[in-house]
Amino acid sequence: MKSEDIRPSTPEQEQIIENKALSIGEAILPVIILVAMLAYNIFIFGDAALSGSNQFILLIGAAVAAIIGFKNKVTYAQMMEEVAHNVKSTAGAILILLMVGALSGTWLLSGIIPSMIYYGLQLLTPTIFLGASLIICSVISLATGSSWSTSATVGIALIGIGDTMGINPGMTAGAVISGAYFGDKISPLSDTTNLASAMAGAGLFDHIKYMLITTIPSILIALVVFIIIGFNISSSGTPDITDKLSAIDHAFHITPWLFLVPALVIYMIFRKTEPLIALLAGALLGGVAAIIFQPELVTKVAGATILDFNTAYKGVMTALTTKIQIETSNAALNDLFSAKGMEGMMGTIWLILCAMVFGGVMDAIGALSRISQALLNMFHTVFGLFASTVLSCLAINVTASDQYLAIVIPGKMYKKAFEDKNLHPVNLSRTLEDTGTVTSVLIPWNTCGAYNAGVLGVPTVDYAFYAIFNWISPFMTLTVAALGYKIKELAKGK
Q1: E-assigned strands of 306-416?
Q2: Are the beta carbons of 384 and 363 closer than 8 angstroms?
Q3: What does the alpha-carbon distance between residue 143 and residue 76 come to, in Å, rounded to a whole number?
Q4: What CA–CA distance (Å, rounded) separates 200 from 212?
Q5: Measured CA distances, 265 to 24, 150, 248, 311 (Å)
Q6: DSSP secondary structure code for residue 381 in this structure
Q7: Contact, 340 vs 102, CB < 8 A?
Q8: Which of 57, 63, 162, 260 gives the lowest tally of CB atoms within 10 Å of its CB?
Q9: How far apart are CA 315 and CA 309, in angstroms?
C-alpha cells in the first residue's frame, strides 16, 4: 500500500493489504505475544486490568508488529495511516459510548431505570428472569436491528433488576447479549446482516432465511440453558423484595409515564434513526423527565436548596457528564443507583483506541491478510472451507479488534473459494455472521466486547461464558457443515 492511497469510507470498500514478504510466523508472533501478555496482566491485576494496563499491553503488541513491519520494509507512515484510518472508523462508536454514558446518568436521575427495576421486580422472578431477559432483548434487537442500542436501553435495566434479585451479573449480561445479538444477526435492519450478504454476494432475504438453519437452534439451546439455570439459581433477592420496593418508592417518584422516554428511543431506532441521534435524544429527554418527575433529586445533585433554572441545569448536566449517587434506605441498592455519565466511558474509549492502534499496525504490515490466506490454504474439503472461514473470522476479531473487518476481510478472501466449490454465496454469508458478527463481543479488546463491558458494567471475562448464543453459533455452523445439512449449491451453469 502506498502512503498516499486514499482509504475507503465504507466497510464494503475496505482494502486488503498484502505483504508477500511476510511469513506466517511473523504474522502471528504479535498475536501470540499479545495474548500471553494480556493473560499475565489479567492474572496480576484481575478486573482492574481494564483500568489501563491492558491498554498499554495492546500498544506493546502494536510495537512488536511495527518492528516486524520495519523488517519487511513497511514504513512508519504506512502504519500510521492505517492506524489513523482505524481510529477514524471508531468515531461513531466512541460518540455512541459517550451518549450511552450520558443516557445512563439522566435515566437514573429521572427515575427511568429505577422504575424499570421497580416494576421488573414485581413482574419477574429469579426463576424466569434469565429466560425472560433473553426473550425481551431478542424482540428489541430484532425490531431495531441493533445489539448496541438494546444493551444501552433495556440491557442496563435488566442488569439492575438481576443485581437486585441477587443474580450473578455475568449471567444477566450473558442473557442480554445473547438476545441482543440474535436480532443483530438476523434483522434486515442490522448493518452486519446487510454487510455480510453484500460481501458474499447473496440476496439479503435469502441470507436471512439461510441463517435461520443455524440461528434458531442456537437461540433455542441458549433459552433452554437459561431456563435450567433459572430453576437452579439462588433466589436470595426474593425475601427482601418488599424492603427494596419500599426503598425505591421512597427515593424516587415511580410512575409508568417515565417509560415514554425509552419507548420513544426504541421507536426512533426502529424508524431507522441513527443510534447516535436516538441516544442523544434519549439522554436529553431523560434530563427533562428528571426535572419534571424528580425535582428534589435534581436539586440535591446540584448541591442547592431550591429548584430554579440554574439548579436544574447544573443537576442535569452533572448527571450527563460525571458520577452521581442516589442514596436509598436500603444499603444493597446504593451501589446500584449510581451512574458515571460520559466520564465513566473514558476507560472503554481508551481501550478501543489502543486496540485500533494494534489492529491498524497488524493490517498495515499485511498480517491480517497473511493469517487468513494461511488458513484458507490449510483446508481443501467443503467442511475444511467452512472451518477455515470460521477460524479466519475469529482471528480477525482478535487481531483487528473490529467486527466489520471480521466480516469484510474473510468475505473478500473466501468468496472465490466458495464459488470454486460450487457453493452458493449464502453459505459464506451465513458463516461470516455465525462467527464474525457474534464472537466480537467475546473479546475484551474488540470494539464490541469493550462497548458491552462498559455499558453493562460487567467485564467481558465475566459474561463471556454465559453469552451462550454467541459462542455456540460458530459450533452450530460447523456442525451443519459437517453433517452436510442443507449446504446450498450453485445452480448448474452458474
Answers
A1: 324-325, 338-339
A2: no
A3: 45
A4: 17
A5: 47, 11, 24, 26
A6: S
A7: no
A8: 260
A9: 10
Q: Round to whole Å and give the CA distance between 363 and 382.
A: 28
Q: Residue holding cell 436516538?
A: 278
Q: How far apart are CA 218 and CA 54, in angstroms?
A: 32
Comparing CA positions, the residue from 430, 415, 455 lying closest to residue 208 is 430
Using the structure block, give the residue that is written with the C-alpha cell 520495519.
Answer: 70
The reported pTM is: 0.78
Is the pLDDT reported for residue 441 higher than 60?
yes
Distance CA 233, CA 254 (A): 29
- Kindly tell me if the per-residue pLDDT of 493 is higher than 60: no
The SS3 assignment for 116 reads helix
- Phi (first) and psi of residue 372, to 5 degrees: -65, -40
**What's the pLDDT score for residue 13?**
55
Q: Angle at Cα 440 formed by Cα 437 and Cα 443, nearest 5°?
A: 165
Question: How far, in Å, CA of 98 to CA of 279, rounded?
Answer: 10
Q: What is the pLDDT of residues 73-107, one digit of tens each?
A: 899 999 999 999 888 877 887 888 788 889 889 99
Q: Please check whether residue 442 is in contact with residue 464, taking contact to mean a CB–CB distance below 8 angstroms.
A: yes
* Residue matched to cell numbers 429469579: 126
Cα separation, 219 vs 85, in Å, equals: 35
Residue whose grid cell is 471480521: 406
All cell numbers assigned to 102: 450520558
Please name which of 285, 231, 297, 232 lies closest in space to residue 258, comparing C-alpha atoms: 285
Amino acid at 209: K
- Asked if residue 301 lies in contact with residue 324, where contact means CB atoms within 8 angstroms, the answer is yes
Q: What b/e sequence results for 363-386 when a residue is b if at least 16 CB atoms lie within 10 Å of its CB, and e otherwise? A: bbbbbbbbbbbbbbeebeebeebb
Average pLDDT on 238-260 reads: 83
Grid coordinates representing 396 are: 480477525
